[in-house]
Amino acid sequence: MQQQGQFGRSELGQGKKVILEFVSANPTGPLHVGHGRQAALGDALSSLFESQGHAVTREFYYNDAGVQIATLANSVQARARGIKPGDAGWPESAYNGDYIQDIADDYLLGKTVSASDGLPATASGQPDDIESIRKFAVTYLRNEQDIDLQAFGVKFDNYYLESSLYSEGKVDAAVGALVKAAHTYEQDGALWLRTTDYGDDKDRVMRKSDGTFTYFVPDVAYHIVKWQRGFGQAINIQGSDHHG
């Protein structure tokens, strides 16, 4: 009998849960060609695992809080106040792209935007309302990402927010477990992880002297959560800046 569309399919995976995390672009700007590469590879791998009988979850993880999002909000606020790159008062670490002006223009018009993973955000239109600006800008850029990914034919089963790792105590739990296991030490007021024990070229700071965590700490907590959610295999497709 001809298998036709079922050719090559099997049940070898026996329903084993596999999570593939890919794209995972922070909502601070448009997607670029590197994200497109990750989207193509992640979606193809997901389809391959599904064809072999695995229970696949396609997941998009992104930062919805922290320094980068604060920078985004401050950049949009400056544009909403009529301040442009190069002007006096333009934030030193701001995002300079023209898309920031587009967000500010729609914010001042009081528009409503929505993305696939959250509630709609309606702009208050007030340049001094930084919290409204933050929510609007994040949702605006997530919607832009959705449009690009949908045009590319890529869909996700779940979106995971970095902020939830803090609000649910997952970051503190991960750090506590590493401290308890003697994989850390204190130096110069900071908490360090002994990554040289595992082939790294240097140990890495986990908690800076000002008490804030470095970016990879919530990533560690996030991957612990993947196992806690019952996945037997986790595959990440990431940019080279995240390989460490």
Features:
globular; alpha/beta; 244 residues; 16% strand; 9 strands
Based on secondary structure, the structural category is: alpha/beta
Distance, first to last CA: 49 Å
Number of distinct helices? 7
| Percent in strands | 15-25%
Largest sheet: 4 strands, parallel
The residue fraction in helices comes out at: 25-40%
Mean pLDDT across all residues, rounded? 94
Description of the structure:
This protein has 244 residues and is an alpha/beta fold. The strands form 3 sheets. A 4-stranded parallel sheet has the order 5-2-1-9, with helices on both faces. The longest helix is centred in the middle third of the chain and has 22 residues.
Summarize the structure.
This protein has 244 residues and is an alpha/beta fold.
Task: Note the topology.
Elements: E1 17-22, H1 33-51, E2 55-62, H2 67-80, H3 98-108, E3 112-113, E4 121-122, H4 130-151, E5 158-161, H5 162-167, H6 170-180, E6 184-187, E7 190-193, E8 204-207, H7 216-228, E9 233-237
Parallel strand pairs: 1-2, 1-9, 2-5
Antiparallel strand pairs: 3-4, 6-7, 7-8
